[in-house]
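Exercise 7. Given the encoded structure of a 300-residue chain, write a plausible sequence.
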């Protein structure tokens, strides 16, 4: 179960714009892999080439040794694809949509009820898709991609438009799929989602991969300071500066936040002063890595 995916030197241009510019990576069987990047970074275009929906202008894609552009029926049956924009058959209910998708793959009818339960749409089973909310349509789209129990799953921003409960419930579904040995590739703008789900991530911008590693390794490589927040009134500004020491990155006024690269020593000193009540510690995250690599300017 699970398949290997190899992308080598993928290129796609639109006029003078190189949307994908020499992208290469390998996804191991059973790996959960994330493609991250700001709007226009090229991640959706790269994903569509890997899925076989676009033919690369240069480079190659192999899924378990097969070229997805050839549309081999046996390979397509092993793939599940959820696109960024959902599209359904008109005037069908959620149940009928899943029954139709399942019939295309020869799936037993009982699978529909299972998928409705997994994505939390049991109470909407007999509602036409045009009457579903945006988040409900998104969940139905994911259910359609998973109805035939594929070995490799492609998800393009799967939790866009979902509320926090639906996001976390879907994470559980995706973890279960991946832990059963399936290969999963997703794009997402939610860095906490990538940290929670992905074994490795590739951060893209301007059509190229900037960094690729496990989320934890990327965060460690950033070497960012730690923010230690104290309950108001715990220390005076002078005491907070004394605890922080001369190598502190910053101590705010009135001394409720110490930013330091020597968190262990600062925490030890705070413990000695009995100043740990209400304290919180925040280190760097994948979002910090993302912003460090891609910048903070607005994207069109």
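Solution.
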């Amino acid at each position: 179960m699970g398949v290997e995916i190899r992308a080598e030197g993928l290129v796609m241009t639109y006029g003078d714009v190189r949307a994908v510019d020499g992208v290469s990576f390998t996804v191991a069987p059973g790996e959960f892999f994330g493609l991250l990047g700001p709007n226009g970074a090229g991640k959706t275009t790269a994903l569509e080439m890997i899925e076989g929906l676009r033919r690369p202008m240069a480079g190659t894609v192999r899924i378990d040794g097969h070229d997805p552009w050839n549309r081999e029926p046996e390979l397509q049956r092993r793939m599940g694809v959820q696109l960024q924009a959902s599209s359904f058959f008109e005037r069908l209910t959620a149940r009928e949509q899943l029954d139709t998708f399942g019939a295309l793959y020869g799936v037993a009818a009982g699978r529909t009820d299972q998928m409705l339960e997994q994505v939390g749409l049991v109470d909407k089973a007999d509602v036409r898709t045009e009457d579903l909310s945006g988040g409900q349509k998104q969940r139905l789209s994911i259910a359609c991609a998973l109805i035939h129990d594929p070995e490799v799953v492609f998800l393009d921003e799967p939790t866009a438009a979902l509320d926090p409960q639906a996001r976390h419930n879907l994470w559980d579904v995706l973890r279960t799929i991946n832990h059963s040995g399936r290969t999963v590739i997703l794009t997402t703008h939610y860095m906490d989602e990538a940290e929670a789900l992905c074994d490795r991530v590739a951060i893209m911008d301007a059509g190229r991969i900037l960094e690729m590693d496990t989320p934890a390794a990327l965060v460690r490589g950033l070497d960012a300071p730690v923010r230690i927040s104290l309950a108001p009134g715990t220390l005076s500004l002078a005491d907070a500066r004394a605890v922080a020491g001369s190598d502190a990155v910053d101590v705010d006024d009135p001394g409720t936040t110490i930013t330091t690269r020597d968190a262990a020593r600062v925490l030890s000193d705070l413990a000695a002063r009995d100043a740990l009540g209400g304290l919180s510690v925040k280190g760097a995250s994948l979002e910090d890595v993302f912003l460090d690599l891609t910048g903070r300017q607005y994207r069109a």
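Remark. The first helix runs from residue 43 to 51. Students should compare their own answers with the one above.
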